[in-house]
Amino acid sequence: MLVIALAGAAALLALAAIAAISAGATAAPRIVYGTSLVIATVSLVEAATQLLGWAAPQTLTLPFGVPWLGAHFHLDALSAFFLVVVDLGAASTSLFALGYGRHEQAPQRVLPFYAAFLAGMTLVLLADDAFTFVLSWEFMSLTSWALVTAHHRVPENVRAGYVYLVMASFGTLALLLAFGVLAGPDGHYVFSQMRATHPAAALGALALVLALIGAGSKAGIVPLHAWLPLAHPAAPSQVSALMSGVMTKVAIYGFVRIVLDLAGAPAWWWSIPVLTLGGITAVLGVLYALMQHDLKRLLAYHTVENIGIIFIGLGLALAFKAYGMPAAAALALTAALLHVFNHSLFKSLLFFGTGAVLTATGERDMEHLGGLIRRMPQTAFVFLVGCAAISALPPLNGFVSEWLTFQAILLSPHLPSWGLKLLVPAVGALLALAAALAAACFVKAYGITFLGRPRTSAAAAAAETDGFSLAAMFLLAALCLIAGILPGLFIDALAPVSWVLIGARMPVQIGVPWLSIVPIAQSRSSYDGLLVFLFMIISGGLAASAIHRFASDRLRRAPAWDCGYSDASPATQYTAMSFAQPIRRVFGSFVFRARERGEMPPPGDMRAARLSVELHDPVWETLYAPLAAFVGFGAERLNRLQFLTIRQFLSLVFAALVALLLVLALWS
Amino acid sequence: MVLIRDLLIQGAQMFLVLLAAPLFTGFVRKVKARLLRRQGPPLIQPYLDLVRLTRKEVVLAESASWLFRVIPYLVFAATWIAASLVPTFRTGLLFSWSADLIAIIALLGSGRFFLALGGLDVGTSFGGIGSSREVMIASLAEPAMLMIVFTLALIAGSTQLSTVAQFMASPQVGLRASLALTFVGLVLVAIAESSRIPVDNPATHLELTMVHEAMVLEYSGRHLALIELSSALKLILYVSLLACLFAPWGIEAAGAAPPALAIGVATYIAKLAVGGFLLAVFETSIAKMRVFRVAEFLGVALMLGFLATLLRFVSESF
Question: Where is B53: in which H helix or E strand?
Answer without folding.
Answer: helix B45-55
